[in-house]
Amino acid sequence: MTDGTASSKPGYAPVIGLIVLTYVLATSVSERVGVALVLVVQIGTVWYVLRLASIRLRLRRAATAVFALALVAAAGALASPANWLIGLTFLAGCVLYAIAPAAIVADVARRAVDRELLLGALAAYLMLGMAFGLAYRCVALFQPGPFFTDAGEATLPDALFFSFVTLTTTGYGDLVPAANPGRSLAVLEALTGQLFLVTAVAKVVEAWRPRRRRS
User: Which of 124, 140, 168, 195 is the most exposed place for a label (fewest CB within 10 A)?
Assistant: First the structure.
């Protein structure tokens, strides 16, 4: 009966699909229209994650407040091309993608090593990359000078590309933040990515060893 209940519970595979959809929309649609579409998918993704992870009431209320802010910002960005409105929309999206990984990590930390733990960890990792990418675009809209040294303005596709390159510490070197806070965000993302991977691998190894010994 326990196995049947666990298998019938919704899993994290749809979350990964929604994150991929968000990335595709963000990199293939014009920013003014795309930002609204991206936020709609983000809200759906985060709502699904919070429902799946059974989070605490405080975090749920905070997410609801961000949902409302995101919708207002998206409506404003569609009505007006003002940079501060578009930047506010990206900020709301960044916060949404920062809340969801915390809920996922809290949920998968209680699980044994199984398919859902691995999918949940992957979903949280991808959301971190998306969150930092939206943060870079937000900073680029608010700061007076260019975000990157040679490439200039950080478009959303460039910001997301730079984010995942930084998160995985690949470091191609073709995109480099010109000044703070972009540089500090990049350092924070690189450290976060490495710490996340080390923690996730440690969790898998720790939970996997007893299972192998029992078998």
Answer: 195
Domain region containing 175: 2-214
**How far is residue 104's CA from residue 45's CA, in Å, rounded to a whole number?**
12
What total number of domains does the chain contain?
1
**Confidence (pTM):** 0.82
Residue 191 buriedness (CB in 10 A; 0-12 / 13-18 / 19+): exposed
CATH number (domain holding residue 19)? 1.10.287.70
Sign of the CA dihedral with 127 first, then 140, 175, and 27 last: positive
